[in-house]
């Protein structure tokens, strides 16, 4: 979806849940390669089908990123991992069992079929199983979506649909207005491709991660 849009994206009010009509509209947009701004447990995010290379490239252009880091993917259940990751280590499984759904993003080895625009050529993909009810309901209907923050690169992350439209305008095809998001700390990010490494400490602390791994007979690097 490109071009003949107004100066602002269409806003779809979804304060608590999706009607069938709203869900169909969102599905139609993302399946056509469109970009949807969605609320998450912290800030609004830009959602496209992660296996659609053209749509993922469009997200990078919107943000103004050069593509030197992988783009996060959001899922609603464990089964959605199957089309994204090449393997799950015992340490990653221990963290999944304890912290998902929740604010922990885990970097996995990516399936080779995933677009380079998503993995940034790293062979890895970061995934989070969301605990945000509205977003989880959407992902159960449309499948996994990218979850990079809905803002220009280097600019503050945004907590309202109005702020997203003010900053991104018609670069986004549809904004799902779930009301203000909580903000706060971002998710913790860990790399599970070898010994667990904390890439970014956020809502889940290093101490919590270390405790869970220790109980599983593993350790945090």
Number of strands: 11
Strand order of the largest sheet: 7-4-6-5-10-11
Radius of gyration: 17 Å
- Give helix and strand order, one letter per element, not per position: EHEEHEHEHEHEEHEEEH
Termini gap: 44 Å
Helix content: 25-40%
Overall mean pLDDT stands at: 92
Seen as an oligomer or otherwise, the chain set is single chain
**Fraction of residues in β-strands:** 15-25%
- General shape: globular
Number of helices: 7
Biggest beta sheet summary: 6 strands, mixed
- Give unreliable regions as ranges: 1-6
Which class of secondary structure composition applies to the elements?
alpha/beta
Concise structural overview:
The protein is 29% helix and 19% strand.
Descriptive notes:
With 221 residues, the protein is α/β, with parallel strands linked by helices. Helices cover 29% and strands 19% of the residues. The chain contains seven helices and eleven strands. The strands form two sheets. The protein has a six-stranded mixed beta sheet. A five-stranded mixed beta sheet has the order 1-9-2-3-8, with helices on both faces. Strand 10 and strand 11 (197-200) form a beta hairpin. It starts with 9 loop residues before the first strand and ends in a 6-residue tail after the last helix. Residues 1-6 have low confidence and may be disordered.
């Amino acid at each position: 979806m490109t071009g003949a849009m107004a100066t602002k994206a269409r806003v779809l009010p979804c304060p608590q849940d999706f009607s069938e009509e709203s869900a169909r509209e969102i599905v139609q947009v993302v399946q056509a390669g469109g970009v949807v701004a969605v609320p998450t447990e912290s800030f609004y995010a830009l959602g496209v089908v992660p296996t659609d290379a053209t749509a993922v490239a469009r997200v990078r252009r919107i943000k103004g990123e050069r593509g030197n880091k992988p783009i996060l993917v959001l899922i609603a259940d464990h089964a959605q991992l199957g089309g994204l990751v090449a393997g799950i280590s015992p340490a990653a499984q221990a963290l999944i069992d304890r912290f998902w759904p929740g604010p922990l993003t885990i970097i996995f080895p990516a399936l080779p079929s995933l677009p380079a625009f998503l993995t940034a050529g790293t062979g890895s993909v970061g995934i989070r199983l969301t605990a945000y009810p509205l977003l989880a309901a959407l992902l159960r209907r449309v499948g996994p979506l990218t979850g990079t923050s809905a803002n220009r690169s280097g600019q503050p992350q945004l907590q309202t649909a109005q702020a997203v439209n003010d900053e991104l305008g018609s670069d986004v095809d549809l904004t799902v207005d779930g009301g203000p998001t909580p903000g706060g700390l971002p998710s913790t990010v860990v790399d599970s491709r070898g010994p667990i490494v904390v890439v970014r400490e956020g809502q889940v602390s290093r101490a919590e991660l270390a405790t869970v791994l220790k109980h599983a007979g593993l350790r945090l690097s």
